[in-house]
Amino acid sequence: MAEKDTDLELKFDGPPVQRLRGAPAEAVISSLNALQRMIYIIGMRAEGRALSERLKPTIKVKREYAVVCRAPRKGSHIQPFAVASQTGEMSGSSFAAREKLLATLRAFDSGEEARLEVVIPNARERWFLAKAATGLLPPEGSGLEVMIRAGSRGPFAFKADRARNLLGAYDTPRPPAIDEETVAGKLRAIDYQQTIMTIKPGSDPALRMDYPLPLESWLQANVRKRLKISGRPKINARGDISSFDEIYNVVELEPHLQPIDRFTTGGKLFGTNRPLTLPVTVHWADRLFAFVDNRLGIDVVVDDVSELRDCVLSELDLVWRQYAQAKDDELDEEALEVKRHLLSRFGPLD
Questions:
Q1: Domains in the chain: how many in total?
Q2: Which of 40, 133, 226, 339 has the lowest tally of Cβ within 10 angstroms?
Q3: Containing domain of residue 196, as a range?
């Protein structure tokens, strides 16, 4: 298969390669396994899955986040590879995983903890990615060089020897304690007598947790729909999330409110080239319902979810008058960006 512009290169060099006239199989296998594990971790996080030491990628993660090896470059010790789905195609999610992989490798290569924290703010995710990346490190003093770059030219994003010290800092027996974790799963059932909801995150064990009574009607509207829960988790003896000690917010992954395909402003009807879906975010402790779309300048919070859609329509009327109808020289750069998004999304119907 021909190489593509989005392909990456895994290169082996140094005295062992020159002596063997080839790369040691152990190093090749270890490096490819490390890259695939890193992609699985990135995919699990992107899909809202919890990370534990018994990393078990879901069927979807295995399907959408794969390391695909191209034919090795003839006459070299370079293994081109791509981050793609198992069909070989690069989806939006696999491209995002490729970009995050490169950013993470560059951060490891820099040797700077501060840079790594910017790329991977979650301490637990950093630990798992660092542990996986140690598979890219050849034995110290072996002389073997392992490098990775984007494309077939230009500087290497990652050199194992440069990353060794920073990766070594994560050589601890246990990952950091979880301060906050995000889990995605289907709301399988509601126990109305005990006010307990059951969330089933894919192939992982079901989670049972209390819910406040004022949120019960919203939960009813989301039975058998997928939700993303963020909070302070409760960890069992196997290191898996069994529930949450405290929930911060819950986001609908399958919105239950009717999408918005038109709105009225100034007595005129406007339509959209793509309906505006309304995934509700629930601020758990405050019992508040929110919808935010920063590109369109919309930020709505209500205490009654039945009012949310009408409030978004009112907000659309407001932002259209404030941004879309304003002159460019009256807006700063951020406001101009909102105006551009509004004008590209909505237009008059009459």
A1: 3
A2: 226
A3: 181-252
pLDDT tens for each residue of 56-66: 788 888 999 99
Residue 1 counted as domain residue: no
DSSP string across 242-293:
EEEEEEEEEEESS--SPPEEEEEETTEEEEEEEEE----EEETTTTEEEEEE
DSSP for 21-57?
Answer: TS--HHHHHHHHHHHHHHHHHHHHHHTTPPP-SS---
| Structural contact between residues 290 and 283, judged by C-beta atoms closer than 8 angstroms | yes
Backbone angles phi, psi at 107, to 5 degrees: -65, -45
Asked if residue 3 belongs to a domain, the reply is no
Q: Is-contact 112 104, C-beta < 8 A?
A: no
Same domain? For 277 and 342 the reply is yes
Query: Any idea which residue has 């100034």 for tokens?
Result: 266
Is residue 120 within 8 Å of residue 129, measured between CB atoms?
A: yes
Residues 153 and 101 in one domain: yes
Smallest CA-to-CA distance from 108 within 143, 83, 133, 125 is with 133
**pLDDT digits 0-9 by tens, 227-258:** 999 998 887 766 677 889 999 999 999 999 99
* Domain C-terminal end among 145, 168, 191: 168
Is the model's pTM score more than 0.70?
A: no
Tell me: do 159 and 215 sit in the same domain: no
